[in-house]
Amino acid sequence: MTAALQYDIELRRGATFVLPVRWETEPWVYAAIASISLTAPVSITTASHTIPDGWNVAVVDARGLTQLNAANNPPRLADMRRAKVLSATQIEFNGISAASYSQHVANSGYLAWMTPHPLSGYVARMQIKDRPGGAVLLSLTSDANGGITLDDAGKVIEIVIRADQTEAMTWTSGAYDLELVSPGGVVTALLEGAVQVSSEITTPII
Fold it and tell me: Backbone phi, then psi, for 104, in 5-degree steps?
């Protein structure tokens, strides 16, 4: 079983907290690159791809324009970039300018990404406790209005902690994990880590 990803979160008292989570799994998926633009932001064209918007994507084995190539094979987290999907044949890396990069050799290289795990039929649950095994400070679920939304089409698990919930927090630190439960009852821990709560400056005027 794969260990949960360590990811610490910080909440601000009185502010809404939103965290999109993407469940990546093997095998790797590849799409041949047709061209890479020398523009800001850089856009990459393929014959076709199935990348969900916002997914982590790496470039491997591109020739000419090698500045985007992953340093590792298979790519590691540091090699991945968040993809903005423009169409079924084109993505961009919005934070990257390729205006000064080398000319790409057409029809060389691949986009590489991990398979999006299906979310249909799953339920999600998350608890924040004062310490592992301790008292529950906050519980979220994928039930209606439970704070977690499972978007199978977009392959996104969205965690939302409302402003009124963070406003009511009298504690400042804790620990959490996020679990997904399959239709067959298999439990997978996706995320775990520390929780910190910071004080707000602006407060409601009554």
Answer: -75, 140
- Domain 5-23+118-198 belongs to what architecture? Sandwich (2.60)
**Residues 92-149: pLDDT tens digits?**
999 999 999 999 999 999 999 999 999 999 999 999 999 999 999 999 999 999 999 9
Residue listed under structure tokens 């982590």: 56
Cis omega (within 30 of 0) on the bond before 204? no
Task: Report the distance separating Cα 202 and Cα 18, nearest Å.
Answer: 19
The answer to whether the CB of 198 falls within 8 A of the CB of 10 is: yes
Q: Are 29 and 112 in contact (CB under 8 A)?
A: yes
Q: Which helix (H) or strand (E) holds 163?
A: helix 163-167
Write down the CATH superfamily of domain 24-116.
Ubiquitin-activating enzyme E1, FCCH domain (2.40.30.180)
Q: Domain spans of the chain?
A: 5-23+118-198, 24-116
CA distances from 42 to 94, 139, 167 (A): 7, 41, 41
- Taking a C-beta distance cutoff of 8 angstroms, is the pair 196, 13 a contact? no
Summarize pLDDT for 160-179 with one digit per residue, the tens. Answer: 999 999 999 999 999 999 99
**CA–CA gap between residue 129 and residue 62 (Å, rounded):** 46
